[in-house]
Amino acid sequence: MATFTIEGKQFIYNGEPIRILSGAMHYFRIVPEYWKDRLLKLKACGFNTVETYVAWNIHEPREGQFNFQGIADVERFVQIAGELGLHVIIRPSPYICAEWEFGGLPYWLLKDPSMQLRCCYKPYLDKIDTYYNELLARFKPLLCTNGGPIIAMQIENEYGSYGTDKEYLAYLKQAMISRGMDVLLFTSDGYDDSNLQGGTLIPDVLATVNFGSRPEEAFAKLQEYQTESPLVCMEYWNGWFDYWGDEHHQRDNDDVVDVLDRILKLGASVNFYMFHGGTNFGFYNGAGFLGKYEPTATSYDYHAMLNESGDITDKYIAVRELLSKYVDLADVEIPSSIPKKQYGIVRLTEQTRLFDSLNQLSSPITSKCPITMEQLDQDYGFILYTTQISGPRAMNKLVLQQVHDRALIFLDGIYQGVVERNTHDQTVEIKENDIMVEIPPEGATLSVLVENMGRINYGYGLKDPKGITEGVRFERGFLHDWKIHSLPLNNLSKLAFGDMPENASFTPTFYKGKFHVDEVGDTFLKLEGWTKGVAYINGYNLGRYWDIGPQKTLYIPGPLLREGENELIVFELHGTNNPIVIFQDFAELG
């Protein structure tokens, strides 16, 4: 057993003063085989603590069905940290933000259109209680009070930037206490007045602040609300994440070290967000929304001290040098970089078109109006809406009323264009880039393939159902009588691939190829000449690619490969006339 408490402005661990020097890494963004490597590098850098969020949607992917295996084995992650002599800070809020799909909330909350999120709404609280019954029981033996490494837990995440329901925060606090979470509880928020007024439970719960610069200003504001407690920056933003179509964010090492030095001179504790970012594998990237929808890239490199593939960076070395002036560095050898391999050019030799493969992927339902993924109990991926339009009808504008998030339009199987959430004009006025179609006398088949590009994780649009959320209009009137295919694309084993046709296919198509590996190592998949889609290695969803960047390669950790034959499947939305890829030994960002 151990104790971690507060005495005045100090943390006390087992009777001795301690400053928390922590780094964030998320077990669900790192393959389990690499957890120990990343944690050792954290300790060797001079840190004594690791912090991680807990993603509800990883652990309860379907309501009432819990998962704590593989990359979701958070207990093992915590145990490894403890075995290495690290303390652990857990942030198990129902909502985590984290640029993660729906901020960690499970999609199935939105099956109920009346659901109210992040407030004292009983149906929402009931779901949390069921989840906490399962989750917190797993953490109890790992608490420092029971001999484990967990010293502190967060109640909610940056709640002051979202709402003001103190009853909700108090409910979560009591939910933890009643389930035996007898460690230090805290909140974390931005450091302006509205954040600190809305998101904290001062004086009953320790308040911490999040920032990337101006530590003197941040802590001065915190002390206006909380005078006699330790100073903690729970998120020191030493880098930043990337949106698709944006630049790759970088932060100068000297600036990072300067701000850290000022934090430490103030006597504060600190948690680097991020120490190691990792990867948004599968369809788990989130999206921001502050006036427009901005999906996060697959790479969560974050320009952190360890890059996406876990290698130490110049920033790591600079921070370690500074920390050595404040603490004695642990006698731990920095693990060497995991070998990177180039497996060269691979040609994908088989293909099957999406429209020819629907029966292998989905059983359709019919509906008078388009309905959302959540109403069909679909979590991620794509959804296809198909209807017949009678003719003749003169050339007119096709409108998707509230599409979330990006749609490809086909008339009798022929591509007409793309509709994107941010730019689609829903008025009756004809404007440039509108989708205009003409219906012949015999009528036509309209197909709309919608991609869920990630539910919103931050901002005032958090309630973000996917698909066509209202309807489809042509000639000012709504179209009815739809056939709908759910396409989560979580199992491609039933696809029937054939030889590549002589003519290129510019329609959504699955491409398959095989390649041989003599020696397994990390590698990076480059899809130059491809447009947008998803890549799978040996059945594992690596995530999305998109030629608008800034990300130009997909990271493949070595444990996803095997010696001998390996299989790559690429689902390309726009088709390609040269289905080759490159496996190279370096990442390309920006």
What does this structure look like?
This protein is of the alpha+beta class and 590 residues long. The protein folds into 3 domains: 19-323, Glycosidases (TIM Barrel), CATH 3.20.20.80; 344-352 and 495-584, Galactose-binding domain-like (Jelly Rolls, Sandwich); 358-487, Galactose-binding domain-like (Jelly Rolls, Sandwich), CATH 2.60.120. The strands form 7 sheets. Strands 4-5-6-7-8-9-10-11 form an 8-stranded parallel β-barrel, surrounded by 6 helices. Helix 8 (253-265) packs parallel to helix 9 (314-323). It starts with a strand and ends in a 6-residue tail after the last strand.
Rg measurement, Å: 25 Å
Mean pLDDT: 97
Quick one: overall form? Answer: globular
Write down how many β-strands occur, each being a DSSP E stretch of 2 or more residues.
34
**Second CATH tier, the architecture of the largest domain:** Alpha-Beta Barrel
Which structural class should the secondary elements be placed in?
A: alpha+beta
**Helix share of residues?**
10-25%
Ends distance:
48 Å
Keywords:
590 residues, alpha+beta, TIM Barrel, Jelly Rolls, 3 domains, eight-stranded parallel β-barrel, six-stranded antiparallel β-sheet, 10 helices, 34 strands, globular
Quick take:
Residues 10-325 form the Glycoside hydrolase 35 catalytic domain. The chain has ten helices and 34 strands.
Per-chain topology:
Elements: E1 4-7, E2 10-13, E3 16-18, E4 21-24, H1 35-44, E5 49-53, H2 56-59, H3 74-83, E6 87-91, H4 122-139, E7 150-157, H5 166-178, E8 184-189, H6 193-199, E9 206-211, H7 215-225, E10 232-237, H8 253-265, E11 269-273, E12 287-289, E13 293-295, H9 314-323, E14 344-347, E15 350-353, H10 358-361, E16 365-367, E17 382-389, E18 393-404, E19 406-411, E20 414-420, E21 435-439, E22 444-451, E23 456-459, E24 467-474, E25 477-478, E26 482-487, E27 498-499, E28 509-517, E29 523-526, E30 532-537, E31 540-546, E32 553-556, E33 564-572, E34 580-584
Parallel strand pairs: 4-5, 4-11, 5-6, 6-7, 7-8, 8-9, 9-10, 10-11, 12-23
Antiparallel strand pairs: 1-2, 2-3, 12-13, 14-34, 15-27, 15-28, 16-26, 17-22, 17-26, 18-21, 18-24, 19-20, 19-22, 24-25, 28-33, 29-32, 29-34, 30-31, 30-33
Helix pairs in contact: 8-9
